Amino acid sequence: MAGLLLVAYFIPGDREAETRPLDWPGFFLTSVGLACLLYGLERIAHPEDGALPTVTLLAAGILVGWLAVRHLARAQHPLLDLSAFRVLTFALSTLSAGTIFRVAINATPFLLPLLFQVGFGLSPVAACMMILAYFLGNLGMKAVTTPTLRRFGFRSVLVINGVIASASIMACAAISPQTPQALVVALMLIAGLSRSMQFTALNTLAFADIASAQRSSAATLSSMLQQVAMLFGVAVAAAILNLSQIARGAPALDLVDFRIAFLAIGVIGLAASFRFLALPPAAGAEVSGHSLGN
């Protein structure tokens, strides 16, 4: 309720002067393509169901998605305006580096409960208490993010904080059941803090330079890509775990499989972090209030 009231107060209620016909072909193609792609990605986490349905769904999703993009680029009144991707800050924070980094970040909440229960042998309740520190870090960073962005700007924050977040993911490969609990909790807090700042910075930068006419389509595109990144993160993490187990010829997952998964996911996040160097130093300054003279 508080969120609804804040949106009603702060978000302008701009509407287009003329109504446009619904783009039925665009609606059909985007919905079918996205459904196939998301369901196919979700099935990667369940290899026991067989690979053929998963590959078929992913191939269908990519093909129909390509047809959808082709249609949206040519339609007179497209369902989604793809011109937002011509804006550098939006494209980087959603489509390219942003999506890749979200894949790494979204894989972490999937891997951590499995690490603590399967790798460490903890009970679900004990594992949950460890994860609680991770999400407490998410909450604790919210009040700090705005002044940090104002002081250092989006470019520096996304690069440096991205490196810290990626390093914290890779550090999860170094912990074991013998690691002191205080050290594990501290790592979870750091991982949660850096994850929260990166998410907030990405979501804010995405709309920093978006014109009002593009805002509706940009919000939908951003939401769609976040859902794809979330499922893709789980799918990639599950695939790495399964491949590692198969390579060892083991009947069940072991701690070494999680070490490999965390290292691989951390490398993905690290690569995405350096991609933010393509942002100009003053990117999103009107939103963050950052001055290059600071």
Walk me through this protein's architecture.
This protein is mostly helical. 73% of the residues lie in helices and 0% in strands. Helix 2 runs antiparallel to helix 3, helix 2 packs parallel to helix 9 and helix 5 packs antiparallel against helix 6. The two termini are 38 Å apart.
CATH topology of the largest domain: Growth Hormone, Chain: A
Q: Proportion of β residues?
A: under 5%
| Rg, Å, rounded | 21 Å
Main beta sheet, described? none
Classify the secondary structure makeup into a structural class: mainly alpha
Q: SSE order in H/E notation?
A: HHHHHHHHHHH
Helical segment tally? Answer: 11
Large-scale geometry: globular
| CATH homology superfamily name of the largest domain | MFS general substrate transporter like domains
Distance between the termini: 38 Å
Number of domain modules: 2
Amount of helix: over 70%
* Uncertain parts: none
Architecture of the largest domain, CATH level 2?
Up-down Bundle
Q: Estimate the mean pLDDT confidence.
A: 88
What would CATH call the class of the largest domain? Mainly Alpha
Query: Which oligomeric state applies?
Result: single chain
Number of strands: 0
